[in-house]
Amino acid sequence: DAIELSALSHALDLRVAKALIKNGVVGKFDVAQYSQAYQAAGLHRLRRHQVELIRDVGESLDRTVSKPLIGHLLRMSRMPARAAGLSELQSFLERGFEAFRALGGSGPFVNEIAARELAVSERLFAGDPTPFRPT
């Protein structure tokens, strides 16, 4: 799911970037220009799927960090990661693991992110002039 989410997000972002360029926008852009490009990029159903994947990945991470063995294995990977020149990646994974574990259950956090992302997407598709306002 994480790989699918990453690939889908990159593909959708690329479509928006191409739409911006097609509209003559290079460099800085405003909300109206972004909204127009977002609408032109289309793929409303895939945007919803993207939000579903965000929720799925979050729930999967929540199940993973609740398993004590996973944290132990992650810590045991420090030396091999250092030997392979992947210390920065290892550090990122450990910090992310601990941050997610500290939530004590990510359901409300992940659901809030998904709800906000879906709301912004729907407002962008609807042409709302203030799609990024707090809900």
How would you describe this structure to a colleague?
78% of the residues lie in helices and 0% in strands. The protein is mostly helical. Helix 1 (2-22) crosses helix 2, helix 1 packs antiparallel against helix 3 and helix 3 packs antiparallel against helix 7. It starts with a helix and ends in a 9-residue tail after the last helix.
Please summarize what this structure is.
The protein is 78% helix and 0% strand. The protein has 135 residues and is mainly α. The longest helix is centred in the middle third of the chain and has 22 residues, at 44-65.
Question: What is the topology?
Answer:
Layout: H1 2-22, H2 31-41, H3 44-65, H4 68-76, H5 78-83, H6 87-102, H7 107-126
Helix pairs in contact: 1-2, 1-3, 3-7
* Distance, first to last CA: 27 Å
Main sheet summary? none
* Helical residues, percent: over 70%
Proportion of β residues? under 5%
Regions with little confidence, pLDDT below 50 for 5+ residues? none
Number of strands: 0
Average pLDDT over all residues: 93
Silhouette: elongated
Strand and helix order? HHHHHHH
Q: What class do helices, strands and sheet pairing give?
A: mainly alpha
Radius of gyration: 18 Å
Number of helices: 7
Keywords for this structure?
135 residues; mainly alpha; 7 helices; 78% helix
